[in-house]
Specification:
The complex is a heterodimer.
Chain A (H helix, E strand, L loop, with lengths): L1 E3 L4 H13 L4 E4 L15 E4 L6 E5 L4 E5 L4 H10 L2 E2 L8 H5 L10 H6 L7 H4 L6 E8 L4 E5 L11 H5 L7 E9 L1 E2 L3 E8 L3 H12 L5 E7 L1 H5 L4 H4 L5 E8 L1 H15 L7 E3 L1 H12 L11 E6 L5 H8 L6 E4 L4 E6 L5 H12 L2 E6 L2 H6 L3 E2 L3 H14 L15
Parallel strand pairs in A: 1-3, 2-3
Antiparallel strand pairs in A: 4-5, 5-9, 6-10, 7-8, 7-9, 11-13, 11-14, 12-13, 15-17, 15-18, 16-17, 18-19
Chain B lengths: L9 H5 L1 H11 L5 E2 L2 H4 L16 E3 L4 H13 L3 E5 L15 E5 L6 E5 L4 E4 L5 H8 L4 E2 L12 H7 L6 H4 L6 E7 L5 E5 L10 H5 L8 E8 L1 E2 L3 E9 L2 H13 L6 E6 H11 L9 E9 L1 H17 L4 E4 L3 H12 L1 H6 L4 E4 L9 H15 L3 E6 L4 E8 L6 H18 L18 H4 L2 H14 L17 H6 L1 E3 L2 E3 L7
Parallel strand pairs in B: 2-4, 3-4
Antiparallel strand pairs in B: 1-2, 5-6, 6-10, 7-11, 8-9, 8-10, 12-14, 12-15, 13-14, 13-17, 16-18, 17-18, 19-20
Classes of the chains: A alpha+beta, B alpha+beta.
Amino acid sequence: METATPQDEAELAETLRQASEDARPLEVIARGSKRRFGRPIQVASSLSLAAFSGVSLYEPEELVLSAGAATPMSTIEALLEEHGQMLAFEPADLEPLLSGPRDEARRDSLGGVIACNLAGPRRPKAGAARDHVLGVKGVTGEGARFKTGGRVVKNVTGYDLCKLLSGSFGTLATMTEVTLKVLPRPQKTRTLLFFGHDAGEATALFGAAMGSAYDVSGAAYLPEPLARGSAVDMVAGPGQSVIALRLEGSAPSVAARQAGLSALLAPLARVDEELHAQRSLTFWREVRDCRPFVARAERAIWRLSIPPANAAAMLNALSPAEEDYFLDWAGGLLWLARPEDAAEPIAFGAFLERLGGHAMLVRAGDSLRASLPLFLPEHLELEVLAGRIKDSFDPKRVLNPGRLYAGL
Amino acid sequence: MSLIMPKPNESVMARRDEIARALRAIVPGEGVIDQAEELKAYESDGLTAYRQPPMLVVLPETTDQVSKVLAYCKREAVKVVPRGAGTSLSGGALPLADGIVLGLGKFNRVLEIDYDNRCAVVQPGVTNLGITQAVEAEGFYYAPDPSSQIACTIGGNVAENSGGVHCLKYGLTTNNLLGLQVVLMDGTVIRIGGKEMDAPGYDLLGLLTGSEGLLGVVTEVTVRLLPKPSTAKALLLGFPTSEQAGDCVGAIIAAGIIPGGMEMMDKLAIEAAEAFVKAGYPLDVEALLIVELDGPEAEVDHSVEEVARIAAEKGASVSRVSKDDAERQRFWAGRKAAFPAVGQFGPDYYCMDGTIPRKALPEVLERMREMSDKHRLRVANVFHAGDGNLHPLILYDANKGDELQRAEAFGADILTLCVEVGGVLTGEHGVGVEKRDLMGTMFDETDLAVQQKVKCAFDPDGLLNPGKVFPELHRCAELGRMHVQRGQLRFPDIPRF
């Protein structure tokens, strides 16, 4: 494959202008960790954003950071950690899920995380990746260099194109620089574990916890076979399903909330165990990165974003085996491992119509990904609008054609 | 008035009666207003310096009527200005002589409250405070709280991406929405999102929020509800200089504390507020901070101690912690009444809304003092200090010589300064007509063209709220032909309207 590697924004603009003129589609690559995410694209050329790497601005006291699209997430996370800060949306690292296990630090890029709007377990409390993007510099498919947003949190000047670009899978514009809101890391983290409950009980527990003022920042459920597979001894050891609730904040606050939350939930379930710093970190990373399904190579992996209280009803409707699902986002995120069957999504598409939400095909073989839409159910009127938006940025359809929607 | 709006389409105005008849067929009864004295009620919004009675006002009651009205207007090339409660401070709902005002006031019902999924489905004409009032008995609330929350509607909040005192911790409107039903200019009704956290495909929810009524008309909103924090306490901190107050704000955040609200007032604002509501503010300080901590009691108590310690370090000469909720409310009373209080010094005031990086505060205050001398007008400052959102209130008398023009020029200077120090033109009030002609200080022609092309994807004929946000109106066909040369846009010489 022929790869263009522009060295600055002017070269990038020229590359895209030329590609548009020639109607020559490009696969956009920052660090390449998500090339198997989204619908497969068949193009002869790729566009590397490797030159747009590095942190260009970081002012911890202003809670703001700007970095090139290809900046490794590991670099950003290390820098933030040094200053006691973090990306509150807890960006998922899906590379092991998409491309197989690996040992070293995460290899994904900031641009990829934003382009796929990847948020982790803190999503219900802190929002998605899109909620933390303050500004973007980029180049449209036609080769027009533009900026949107700024470096301050409170900004309503013009359309919020930062949000439109977040989750667009690189199909509208190539981002060269992203400015993010960063936040202080919590001083203390504690995860409460409840063993041996079913998904219905988990959903009820989530409802009570999230409806309380105890400020729960993570709420996940692993059925027994998946809990056994955890690298955290206290999760795997009991050999039972696990409900996990996370509390974060200052030490006195966490201690007081732990006592209050435990008392509130006591009629539903009793706390069996608690995870402290490192174990808690490891556990939530497993949930964040969909670790339980990394080794299930034969299965298609679906991610259902649903109304949280409907998780149990959705599971009743789908009745997956215990090793084939787990819940995050207090029930609002249902991960499913399903057979690679092109007809099957039609079945759960109907449940989604009834119970609300949508499904996204995160991992599957090329042929299944090519034969299915990325999102179910399909909404024709939204796709028509998506097509018109695509045309306003990339009329010649040169950027990642087909990755988000067939034909776009 | 210096404001220039798009040239009215005379052939549309000539067909006014026919258009009124056709719209009455869609919205029967009293749903169409065409009498001059009644139209006058709609001639301006919260930015009263600009006035223009609309050609007609249409008050639909159903989404189907909105859809038919828009489809008709598109077919007949009639411009449409959507309007909620008309509290916009940027002229977002300023009518057009050849356009209808589409008032959503009759969409005033809370449709569903779903505590299990912690959300509410409401019609756009429900007031911001109305949502909280509908759910507070169950211990929930809707977080964004613009100061006009008693009157402003959630539909307007969506259009403007409204903020409020608490958005440092809880985000703006855009961070608190789950779903929308929207009618496009061609009458198409779309649904975006729902009760789930993420919506599929392009983030239309994020794009439409804050689009100032230029992309679609919102007919239903699903908002996120939050459990009400169990405790809230406020600190009242006075400083000998505004620099010290600014430092204190930075230090609180650097210490990892994100207050529910963090407001600052300068000397003139303090004096005005104290004279107006007797909140007990100290008068011998240059700057006052109100820092509110909310959350579980143990956390609040811990943070209050931390903030008090930081304030002492930064030289606070006054430091008080609210003993009970009544005292906390008293601390806020002055801040909340700051606008009318400053208005007493008036008779008129002009409220600005720029955002700056926090660290630029001392410089911006100093430069503002110079500008105040230059324009010979007084300015009082209240701001959301935590997120750098300034609300300078310029005092003038519209009946005195060129004071209004000077106030406008002063305001433009302030906003230009905000952009110069790395900030933006508007933090929460919107661009509307007010800051429209300043967009060029923040965005270049390409930036604006990219945004306007998005508009074309929704409304290719430019009928929905034209004359707002963008300093120049381009026909979509022109934008489509814009030639990109070596990464530069070559602009034909397009006349300004």
